[in-house]
Write a structure and sequence with these properties.
The structure is a single chain. This protein is an alpha/beta fold and 475 residues long. The protein has two domains: 271 residues, Aldehyde Dehydrogenase, Chain A, domain 1; 186 residues, Aldehyde Dehydrogenase, Chain A, domain 2, CATH 3.40.309. Helices cover 39% and strands 22% of the residues. It contains 15 helices and 25 strands. The strands form seven sheets. It has a seven-stranded mixed β-sheet, with helices on both faces. It has a six-stranded mixed β-sheet with strand order 10-9-8-11-12-24, with helices on both faces. It has a three-stranded mixed β-sheet with strand order 1-5-4, with no helix packed on it. Helix 12 links the parallel strand 18 and strand 19. The N and C termini lie far apart (74 Å). The mean pLDDT is 97.
């Protein structure tokens, strides 16, 4: 039976006349409903966050840290329950849903540690001839209210990457989670309350981005906006946000190079997992795979065989590898891209079939750079294997993208590794791994169309605080 959930505003869970059904993405069953926020609800949430900031912004670091650590413990205690909700509402295979909860526990634990490490530096004022007999330093101060808009593909950990550092820094927050996966955010709200977070510090509003998200972006109260989603929406946010500080994470068509000296026993299974985990719905999913011609036949045969062995089905099954996509329309769009690529000369080595929201893991060959499956973000379980002759060509192909989030390279040659580090225009490059690698305390974000700013707890805190310079005149 579907359970009706509420919005969290100023410490109170409340409903609304209109509601959104949250579906089990495999069965289509309604597993919960959430209310649709009105413009007045958004205004109430931001006002509550502003009022709460007066106290929370002055809360000692050790108290903020303790609440964040209790939140981590609360998430860990409800791991299986939360993983089940993620598997059902996001369509994420169980093993990846459990890993997401575990990563979120780490994210809040990192934030608990970082809350106690926020500090500034002294400035040598007499380095200037005009600064003699002056002493200077700066401190970091919370900004105020942070507005966060989060996607469906990591309904807990990408939320955690905005909530945890904001609270650690002493900010308050209004969160608009993806309406397709809103139930996980509701659980996080419950866990934060149980950890002792004061009312009004964390608020949740529900609804579609073009209405509720738009209202949050245009609201005058938030000092900072953090958004994960598509480049067009990110550009729109930048255009209408006004004088708010903005962090944007906007996706990628991630690539990885495999050199002839790569250990294929390690590289092949890792590349398969990187292409098809969460049905390819990861901003750093492996989409473009560049393999040297000397090993292309062997690599491709192994890759296709490993892809064929993946279990596709209900994500709550413990042995499932690939579940459904977030919606049938998303699966249809990816299927159309595959058919278009094949009509333009690509070959489907395996996969390409679709049943409802479930798209078979698909491996393409003979793709060209201008095909949508190559030059745009697929966000689907599909990968293209492209052969190359020399390393400089591979770097050029890898770099030939409007995106620049993360990339990978398999090689034992340090000169090639450092050439990639220096030449590939991305926010992160993984050596002897694929583009998909991320741990939650490293700086994470992209260049070019992939976004602005960085996440990763310490780096997000830097984006969510203001510098205040202090100068003493000792004359």
């Amino acid at each position: 039976m579907a359970v009706a959930h509420g919005m969290l505003i100023d410490g109170t869970w409340s409903g609304a006349a209109d509601g959104i059904d949250v579906l089990d993405k495999y069965t289509g069953e309604v597993i919960g409903t959430v209310p649709v926020a009105s413009a007045a609800d958004v205004a109430r949430a931001t006002a509550a966050a502003k009022a709460a900031f007066a106290t929370w912004g002055e809360t000692p670091a050790w108290k903020r840290s303790r609440i964040l650590q209790k939140t981590a413990e609360g998430l860990a205690a409800r791991q299986d329950e939360i993983a089940t909700v993620i598997a059902r509402e996001a369509g994420k295979a169980w093993k990846y849903a459990v890993a997401e909860v575990q990563r979120s526990v780490e994210t809040f634990s990192f934030a608990a540690e970082e809350a106690k490490q926020i500090h500034g530096e002294t400035i040598p004022m007499d380095a200037s001839a005009f600064g003699e007999k002056r002493m200077g330093f700066y401190i970091r101060t919370p900004m105020g209210v942070v507005g966060a808009i989060t996607p469906f593909n990591f309904p807990l950990n990408l939320v955690a990457h905005k909530v945890a550092p904001a609270l650690a820094a002493g900010n308050t927050m209004v969160l608009k989670p993806a309406h397709e996966t809103a139930l996980t955010a509701v659980i996080l709200g419950e866990v934060l309350e149980a950890a002792g977070l004061p009312k009004g510090v964390f608020n949740i509003i529900h609804g579609e981005g073009r209405v509720v998200g738009e209202a949050l972006v245009r609201d005058r109260i938030p000092a900072k906006l953090s958004f994960t989603g598509s480049p067009p929406v990110g550009a729109h946010i930048m255009a209408v946000a006004g004088l708010k500080r903005v962090t944007l994470e906007l996706g990628n068509n991630s690539g990885t190079i495999v050199e002839p000296d790569a250990d294929l026993d390690k590289a092949v299974p890792r590349c398969v997992a990187s292409a098809f985990a969460n049905s390819g719905q990861v901003c750093i999913s492996l989409q473009r795979l560049y393999v040297h011609e000397a090993i292309a036949k062997d690599f491709t045969e192994r890759f296709v065989k490993a892809t064929a062995a993946l279990k596709v089905g209900n994500p709550v099954d413990k042995d499932c590898d690939v579940g459904p996509m977030i919606s049938e329309s998303a699966a249809v769009r990816a299927e159309e891209w595959i058919r278009e690529a094949v009509s333009q000369g690509a070959r489907a080595l395996i996969g390409g079939g679709r049943k409802g929201r479930v798209l078979e893991p698909t491996v393409l060959a003979d793709t060209t750079p201008e095909m949508k499956v190559m030059c745009e973000e697929a966000f689907a379980p599909l990968v293209s294997i492209v052969t190359y002759r020399d390393f400089d060509e591979a770097l050029r192909l890898l770099n030939d993208s409007p995106f620049g989030l993360q990339a990978g390279i398999y090689t034992q040659d340090l000169r090639k590794a450092f050439a990639a580090i220096q030449k590939v225009d991305v926010g992160g490059i993984m050596i002897n791994d694929t583009s998909i690698f991320r741990v939650d305390h490293m700086p994470y974000g992209g260049n070019k169309t992939s976004g602005i700013g960085r996440e990763g707890v310490r780096f997000a805190i830097e984006e969510m605080t203001n510098l205040r310079m202090v100068c003493f005149n000792l004359n």
